[in-house]
Design a protein that fits this description.
Distance between the termini: 43 Å
Strand content: under 5%
Shape: globular
Order of helices and strands: HHHHH
């Protein structure tokens, strides 16, 4: 139960952080390009890499704090950071073909999913 609570608290923090970056990016750059999404994805991926290395090499944390920071905060901030970590792990294991399939599959299938969802619910709700 502690683990679930840690993830929930972290997710709330991450979601508020994402919103805050979105408001800032809209004010700073306007709405002509999805700057906020780009910023949170790149920043979240950087932070995921940094946290994983720090926790592996210097900072011995328990499962609750690890989950709060990675699954919760960064998961709520951006799911792209988790994708990036999964991809990096495959590359570091030398599974280049699997990493390529994962990246292309994630990209293509996620885009297909969004367009399918848009189309399907336009049909249902029209």
């Amino acid at each position: 139960m502690k683990l679930i609570l840690a993830i929930a608290v972290g997710g709330a923090i991450g979601a508020v952080g994402r919103h805050t970056v979105g408001v800032w990016a809209l004010r700073a750059f306007g709405s002509g390009f999805p700057y906020s999404t780009l910023i949170v994805n790149v920043l979240g991926s950087f932070l995921m890499g940094a946290l994983i290395e720090v926790m592996a090499l210097r900072w011995n944390v328990g499962p609750e704090l690890r989950a709060l920071l990675t699954v919760g905060v960064l998961g709520g901030f951006t799911t792209f950071s988790t994708f990036s970590l999964d991809f990096a792990v495959l590359i570091e294991r030398g599974q280049f073909g699997t990493a390529l399939i994962y990246a292309l599959g994630s990209f293509v299938l996620s885009l297909a999913g969004i367009f399918l969802g848009l189309w399907l619910f336009r049909q249902i709700l029209a």
